[in-house]
Amino acid sequence: DKGNHRHFMLKEIYEQPDAISHTVSHYLDLANGKVKLPAKLPFDFKSLNRLTISACGTAFYAGLVAKYWFEKYARLPVEVDVASEFRYREPPMDADGLALFISQSGETADTLAALRYCKAQGQHIASIVNAQESTIARESDIVFPIQCGPEISVASTKATTAQLSVLASLAIAAGRQRGTISEAEEFELVDMLAKLPGAITKALASEDKIDQISHALSKADDVLYLGRGSLFPIALEGALKLKEITYIHAEGYASGELKHGPIALIDETLPVVVVAPSDQLFDKTISNMHEVAARGGKIILITDEAGAKSAGDDVSEIIIVPDAHEFVMPIICAIPVQLLAYHTAVFMGTDVDQPRNLAKSVTVE
Ligand code: M6R
């Protein structure tokens, strides 16, 4: 049932404040500002020497964001790969590694094959799934459910932000066990996750503005998405969402890679979506935007108030996200990229919930 919404995708986009609030309530002890995992871990983060994450599509991008979090807050080396590559390259794996699989459906063939490979390599097996009765869940030593309710739209939205919320909680838990964050830091990070539903509600308020921007975007043949750090995977996610439901060619790049190739594409016909809240590296993003604007590229900037103030004249359109710490920004910035793809698709009249050639669950290679 779509309720009052025209599409399941929009319904699921709007379910995110509640979904995340539900998800984090299973992973956090909000009264005491601590992480409280729903099950006892069959391994100890302290003795792990590596975390290996495998997944496909959007779930892979969630894993890429998690790499930034686990490395920064838990000082744990992380490898992330798409499951279809991982499973065939026979990577060597040391004992005391944790292998983590992210899958909404829990049935994705490549992700399952990667899981079985890691099991044969003696890794601890954990999964983050929505479907708790799924094969991936059954074959894991420990399952972290995302608790967001069924997701019907082929383009994943609420499952993605719920996966990210679980990953963020796990990164804090890992940091505490490994002694890389203090109790006070844990308290602050938990508080940021607790405030996410409110921040997401604020991010959803940009919908009308995004709807207007989408009309021009629908005329493009190609769109470039740029982001740095933990927002780089959100640029990839924005490009994937746009491709999936509008069939417009889009690519995500790390902003620093602009000069190493994609800048050759820039002309007046190429919109560039820059996902960049103000941070220590914002100056570098400003200079990237300048390079784009100097070649006639039209910039759509997703940023916070401070970023909007310092962005200058190079930017054609600005989508404001609420101010927040960089830790939670990837989850907040996922919202405008979902809405941008959604409204562009609606404007173009494509089949939003059932895009051509795609299936919700990819159970064959
Ligand atoms: O069920 P899974 O999370 O394992 O699915 C993985 C991908 O097929 C999925 O995320 C796909 O990329 C979505 N259509 C993204 O919107």
From TrEMBL:
Record EC number: 2.6.1.16
Domain annotation SIS: ranges: 41-180, 213-355
Cellular component terms (Gene Ontology): cytosol
An example molecular function term from Gene Ontology annotations: carbohydrate derivative binding
The keyword Transferase is assigned to this record: yes
Active-site residues, as the UniProt record annotates them: 360 (for fru-6p isomerization activity)
Coiled coil (residue ranges): none
Main location: cytoplasm
The protein's enzyme class: transferase
Keywords: Aminotransferase, Cytoplasm, Glutamine amidotransferase, Repeat, Transferase
Catalysed transformations (reactions): D-fructose 6-phosphate + L-glutamine = D-glucosamine 6-phosphate + L-glutamate
Location relative to the cell: Cytoplasm
Keyword Transferase: yes
GO biological process: amino sugar biosynthetic process; carbohydrate metabolic process; fructose 6-phosphate metabolic process; protein N-linked glycosylation; UDP-N-acetylglucosamine metabolic process
Binding partners and assembly: Homodimer.
Function: Catalyzes the first step in hexosamine metabolism, converting fructose-6P into glucosamine-6P using glutamine as a nitrogen source.
Protein name in the entry: Glutamine--fructose-6-phosphate aminotransferase [isomerizing]
Positions spanned in the full protein: 244 to 608 of 608
